[in-house]
Amino acid sequence: MIKRIGHFINIILLSLAVLTIGSCDRHGTAWNKMDKAENLMDTKPDSALVVLENIPSSSVNGKEAAARYALLKSIALDKNYIDTTTFDVLQPAIDYYVKNGTPDEQFRTYYYQGRIYQNQGDDDSAMQSFMNACDLRKQVTDSLLLSHTLVAQGTLYLKQYKINDFVHYNMEAAKLYKTIGKDILAIKSYTNALDGYVMQNNKPAADSLMSICVPMVKKNPEGEAFLFPSLLSYTVNFCSSDEIKEVLTEYQNMELTTDETMIFAEGYSKIGEYDKAMALISNINPAENTWDSLKYASIKIDILERQGKYKEAFTLYRDYSASLEHYQKELLSQDLLFSDKKHQLEMKSLMEIQDRDRIIWGTLCGIFALVIIIGWLYYRGYRSKTKHILTEKENKNLRLEQENLRLEIDQLEDERDNLKELQKEQSELSKPIKDVIKNRLDLLNGLLAKEITNNDRYAEPYNKWIDTVRNDKKKFMDSTRLAFAASHPKFIEHLEQHGLSTDEINYLCLYAIGLRGKEVGEYTQMKRHYIVSHEIRKKLGIDEHETNIGPYIRRLMKGLE
Description:
- The protein has helices at residues 2-40, 45-53, 63-79, 91-100, 103-120, 123-134, 143-159, 163-179, 183-199, 203-219, 224-238, 241-250, 258-270, 274-282, 291-307, 310-333, 339-425, 430-453, 466-471, 473-487, 489-497, 502-512, 517-524, 529-540, 549-559.
- It has 561 residues and is mainly alpha-helical.
- Among the domains are: 241-334; 345-414; 426-559, no CATH class.
């Protein structure tokens, strides 16, 4: 029966293993393809998109896998310049990563969410997404994407006429780009900031950026496409007429963008070549109520005024004012101007909630800790009381033992007195006492030899007295001390004068008869062996470098003979 049950369990375990391996394989196939797409993303985004599109939806199992696929495909679409205006692709990533993702996964999700909002024209929601992303900036490792996010925020700030913020975010992005070796992108962000300084008519700041951008473009010629319009704008706004004319002449046959054409027209107007300026500006047909249309109208009004065509200039000015008013109303109808303030208020509210939660949890933890401390103190008190009762009982038993021992010590003290009297009469009596000490040493060495080697052969001659010596260590040590008191009275007096107790003198007498520290510890079995040794050293003033107390005691005894 037991064998059948075991066989049945083995079949179940094998089946589970097969199912688990099959499940991992199915998950692993889609996951491995996503790994491949991610590796291709920066260098071959078109290939990455193909790999992702060839992953069957049926093989993407689980919320995490669906979230990763959604995020990677959104990244691939963006890198292939395929602007999406819906969240059909990204939504699984938003649903999963915003709450469960790592800081990097959350950051990427917020960034591409913001990009979709930008494509929809919802600048307020885009700014909110970018701000949510930047709240994680201290935790993320993707410096490149962080730089992209700062640039995107700067672009939105430019729409709000917040030139300082536009410059700040582009400068910050440029420094990050440069740090990670993306010099072309750094040039682009620096030139954005340069445009901002030109708008503010801040020539010293613009000059400082020119000193950064020009050397970078010399090292990276591809960056000239970004520097050229900024350099053109800088020249038209800050340089002399001759310098403006020289630049315009040099690049007059170059194919220009709409923005560059307007700057050229502005430059020709400044140097008095109004016909050229009007010819250039007339070729432009910007969309209504846009930033370009306002810039176009502003430049054309300036040209007409310089030509003395005030009526045309006034008519265009009225159209310009109407367009500007419409643009401002449209801007004010959005929350974009106040999105950063709103975000700050939301973050402040969140911080207040977190502070409140910390206080609540801190209070609960404090109460819990207090309960633990009270319980611990109660337990300590109970243990202390119990220990005190046990100690009292032990002390009572010890006093009884000491009374019995005192009777024996009294007899030994009588022997010591007799030995002193004999010593006064004849100093030769110290030799028999030395013989006694030698006998004591022989006995103790036999005991220690047996204890240390665990070889009973060493103890065969001493089997009759080993237990007596072991069980009456106090008596043996007292007798040894009394023997030294008779043979080396100055030695014992020296120890007493230094404040050593009877037990401490007994302890040192074991060293005096030739035992080593290990042997003394083995014989006495004292838990405080090293503490007693430290206290004796302190009383005798033994130098801390005197590592062995035995030789010191024997030298001291010999010196006091």
